Amino acid sequence: MPIETYRTIHLFAIMLLFTSIGGLALYVAAGGTKAANPHRTLVSALHGTAAFLVLLGGFGMLARLHVAFPFPLWIWIKLTIWTLLSVVIVLPYRKPDLAKPLFLAAPLLGLAAAWAAIFKPA
Ligand code: HEM
């Protein structure tokens, strides 16, 4: 697959990832609970699929860019952010007080990942 296809998958998956995190965080911040959430399965399925596709697109691009192990710093930054955005989906239900801060902080993690991709700190 050409790099453009991996980039398209990467960017679409990022949109799905933030849609699922933002939607859940706002639902819980507004007082919603896990038991009462009619879209519980949809949110976790969307988030899981998105996290996988971010990785698929990212590693696909790495292959096309001939970036191999040991990875440069910018990839470790992005992998750390990806891990955070992958596990953070459990936070709103476990710590509802952190749902609104997560809603505001998640885009900042996205900004950091975009910065790392564009400026590529070595
Ligand atoms: C959820 C976390 C992530 C976000 C928000 C994110 C965001 C982005 C953005 C906005 C771009 C720029 C796309 C463009 O220039 O058109 C990008 C490019 C890229 N990302 Fe990610 N990314 C994430 C995770 C990852 C991971 C985990 C990897 C590696 C496995 C990765 C590898 C790449 C590569 C290789 C590029 C292309 C850089 C280039 O064209 O020079 N990203 N990412």
Notes on the protein architecture:
This protein has 122 residues and is mainly alpha-helical. It has one domain. Helix content is 75%, strand content 0%. Helix 1 runs antiparallel to helix 5. The protein is elongated, with a radius of gyration of 15 Å. The mean pLDDT is 97. It binds protoporphyrin IX containing FE (HEM). Protoporphyrin IX containing FE binds next to helix 1, helix 2, helix 3 and helix 5.
The class by helix and strand makeup works out as: mainly alpha
The count of helical stretches stands at 5
Q: Report the mean per-residue pLDDT as an integer.
A: 97
Distance between the termini: 27 Å
Q: In which range does the helix fraction lie?
A: over 70%
Order of helices and strands: HHHHH
* Low-pLDDT segments: none
Instruction: State the total count of DSSP E strands.
Output: 0
How many discrete domains?
1
**Rg calc:** 15 Å
Specify the overall morphology: elongated
What amount of the residues lies in strands? under 5%
Biggest β-sheet: count, sense, barrel?
none
Bound molecules: protoporphyrin IX containing FE
Keywords:
mainly alpha, 5 helices, binds protoporphyrin IX containing FE, single chain, about 75% helix, about 120 residues
Quick overview of this protein structure:
It is built from five helices and no strands.
Topology record:
Blueprint: H1 3-29, H2 40-64, H3 73-87, H4 91-94, H5 99-119
